[in-house]
Amino acid sequence: MKNFFTSFFGAIIGVVLAMVICTLLFISSIVGMFGGLREALGEDGGPKKEVKANSVLFVDFKRPISDRTIDNPFANFNFSGMGEEGLGLDKIVENIKKAKEDSAIKGIYLNLTELNAGIATVEEIRNTLLDFKTSKKFIYAYSEVYSQKTYYLASVSDKVYLNPQGMLEFKGLSAQIMFYKKALDNYNIEMQIFRHGKFKSAIEPFMLDKMSEANRLQTEVFMGSIWNSILTGISKQRGVTIDELNRIADNLVLKNQKDAVALKLVDALLYEDEVHDEIRKKVSIAADKKINFVKLADYNSEDKKPFNVKKKEKAGDKIAVIYAVGSIESGEGDDNTIGSDRIARAIKEARLDSTVKAIVLRVNSPGGSALASDVMWREVLLAKKAKPFIVSMGDVAASGGYYISCAADKIYAQPNTITGSIGVFGMMPNAQKLLAEKIGINIDTVNTNKHSDIGTIFRPVTEEERIYIQKGVEDVYDVFTKRVAEGRKMTQANVDSIGQGRVWSGTDALKIKLVDELGGLDKAIAYAAEKANLKTYKTVELPKQKNTLEAILGKAEDEAETKMMAKNLGENYKYIQHLRNLIRMKGVQARLPFEFIIN
Questions:
Q1: Do residue 285 and residue 332 come from a single domain?
Q2: CA–CA distance, 358 with 419 (Å, rounded to integer)
Q3: Residue 371 lies in a domain
Q4: Global pTM value
Q5: Residue 334: its H or E element
Q6: Which of 295, 327, 346 is the last residue of a domain?
Q7: What's residue 178's pLDDT?
């Protein structure tokens, strides 16, 4: 009987293994097929279109815009049936620049009903479109609903059209922060807080019922700076004064679609087919002829990948562009999380590669683990000694995101980049009363030493332990401010005066010398080339992305759950994400106090 069960279960295991191997072989063959078809297929899986004469580049942003395009033929397909990935900012900018020089492209049509991107990302796209206009080619924009963010982007256009029954929002910026203290009190959960920095407000939702005066002040200042940047851009392109724009927002002057035209924010109220008629007139084609629209994804060039040069090709000098995107934690991380091991390894690889003459670190991060940030800072310092090292900040480069940036030779940020937040904190929940009084569970403990169970959630910290933990937080803050002082050539006292966890806009960060110049990734790369004395060069993108098979097998299950929750909860999903990030925190944190989204 024993032999029977051994044989039986062995056969079952064999069948399962065979099925797994066959599945992997099948997926590998599909990957190979897609690799062979990529020359013939566009990014959206349709036939790659030939760019004919008198074409118009069709640009929409229905999918979230990341800093870096996922190099994956399955990028628009996943097992949950909710494809999300599209072109990253790198390819969007590259393709618009290419269209500027392409004689077959006569103009750009922006369909802006949706725009899922941070405000600094929008700024970078907007600046690229402004550069496109120097070619004397046209840009027309249309939307059914313009949010303030989509209108800011649309304002670069020669003509801004709105659906006759559509809407344009123009009311100023608002920040709303959710506070959890009362809910925690209801469940008898005490959050034990350790921090340095009066502006380090990441922990305020767990200890207060409303914003502290320090947090309210910093929020008012950086939001005012960002709003002024938006108004300045709109005013310059639309010829409406900043005072008038503020009057429109303050007095709710914009009541309907006709007001948008009367106030010179919109050029005309047209349905999309009527906008197409205007484009036909612009490119001189008959009313009954089809416009040759070329989608931005279809226009993506397969033979011109400036951020995808394989190391073995070693053709000419290179600039390494290293993407550090997401929350910071120890370990490997992925394309959406900054793992200190992965990013530190990428920086070291670029430093040791003799063909790489300069490094640009693209940072888009609210921060995270202070320890993991310091691991990457060390590699930045070593790389800086070997070759020019430049930082380009995206939507946010704060706390740990600033920590890993501060040692660079030069730092670029957009006017509306969120940066600074030089401060640290730690937080430990005490669930003793929750368990004992709400659930009826008591915890009894045996320790070999007095503080063996320090850090447990089953009791409060003692005063001696509180002093001990607070000392650790103070030490991390001291190191953080020293790193910034050394990198920015400032005194530590000066850093402390502008630190304390305070958040700054890129414009204000420039004034206090936390950044060196306003501009996007292109400017950072151009400066890196100048510092390395490069006339011609290629760019190589790091860290290397996972291959297609790894990407599919690694993310299918997580994406199915995540995207289903996001679909059902809508905008409220960001609060679930925030709580998930809190649960994953380990050690002292250098993290932005909130998730910042502009619409």
A1: no
A2: 24
A3: yes
A4: 0.82
A5: strand 333-334
A6: 295
A7: 87
